[in-house]
Amino acid sequence: MITASPVVLSILSAGYCRHPELLTLRGGSLRPVAFPAGYAVIRHPQFGPILFDTGYSSRFFQETAKLPAALYRHITPVVFMEEESAAHRLRQAGIAPEEVRLVVLSHFHADHIGGVRDFPQAEFIYLQKSYDAVRDLGPVKAVRAGFLPGLLPEDFLERSRPVNGASPKRPLPAGLPFSEGYDLLEDGSLLAVELSGHAAGMIGVFLSSGGHDYLLCADTVWSSRAFRENRRPHPAAGLIMSSRKEYALNFDRLCELHSGHPELRIVPSHCREALAAWGTGGVQ
């Protein structure tokens, strides 16, 4: 196992948006396709249910009702049903949202933080530079960065446990394109690596579950075909990236990781293929 302590993983989605495939995969179709807003529920033996992102919630539509945020809603049309929400899925499994004490945020785009207000007792773990990149943006720049500040609770900072260069780390196994990961729970079960490029300070998380190793890679790619076939997004996608250079670096790392470790389950947040293969449909 890549990590020291196994967990139980449920891979789910809450809503989806539609984009031409060409923007996310060079050589893809001009036809708009659905990109699920993926998230994960991690059942930890000590910390209980933990979320990795949240997907959308109905709050997205409230926050994008007026300009300039309404531009977000029109550029990326969203389809969402309340029964898909992370809070609803947890209730179906007999877990009250108040029982969730930790939410790991890969980055601050609206399709990843849409449901955080549904978890009033949770603390938030994220890379400090990820929040620093969006916290002081004005309304127009925030929309351009995919950030809707109203999705965050008023006491967000008080409930935050940001990760920075001084945070605990653990070495990762030799042969991986990452030498070490942030030890988010200080028990070796969730090891985060920086995957900046799509968004500043974005993180992915290595974990082990059910005898398999996983990398929840957030938006490093939009589909498994990208790293499997070494197909980058269309150059126009660079307009919404925080850094084309960092994106290229981490895209190459993902391709290397898949090539050297094909048994590793790499899970992009918006990949229908990964969701169909390893998604659970409910919280385990």
Structural features, described:
- Counteracts the endogenous Pycsar antiviral defense system. Phosphodiesterase that enables metal-dependent hydrolysis of host cyclic nucleotide Pycsar defense signals such as cCMP and cUMP.
- This is MBL fold metallo-hydrolase.
- It catalyses: 3',5'-cyclic CMP + H2O = CMP + H(+); 3',5'-cyclic UMP + H2O = UMP + H(+).
- Pfam families: Lactamase_B.
- By secondary structure, this protein is an alpha+beta fold.
- The protein has a single domain (8-278), classed as Ribonuclease Z/Hydroxyacylglutathione hydrolase-like (Metallo-beta-lactamase, Chain A, 4-Layer Sandwich).
- It is 23% helix and 24% strand.
- The strands form 2 sheets. It has a 6-stranded mixed sheet with strand order 4-1-2-3-5-6.
- The longest helix is centred in the C-terminal third of the chain and has 17 residues, at 244-260.
- The two termini are 21 Å apart.
List keywords for this structure.
10 helices, globular, Metallo-beta-lactamase, Chain A, alpha+beta, six-stranded mixed β-sheet, 24% strand, single chain, 284 residues
Task: Set out the fold topology.
Elements: E1 8-20, H1 21-24, E2 32-44, E3 48-52, H2 59-63, H3 70-75, E4 78-79, H4 86-92, E5 102-104, H5 110-113, E6 123-125, H6 128-132, H7 139-144, E7 169-171, E8 180-183, E9 191-194, E10 203-209, E11 212-218, H8 224-228, H9 244-260, E12 265-268, H10 272-278
Parallel strand pairs: 3-5, 5-6, 11-12
Antiparallel strand pairs: 1-2, 1-4, 2-3, 7-8, 8-9, 9-10, 10-11
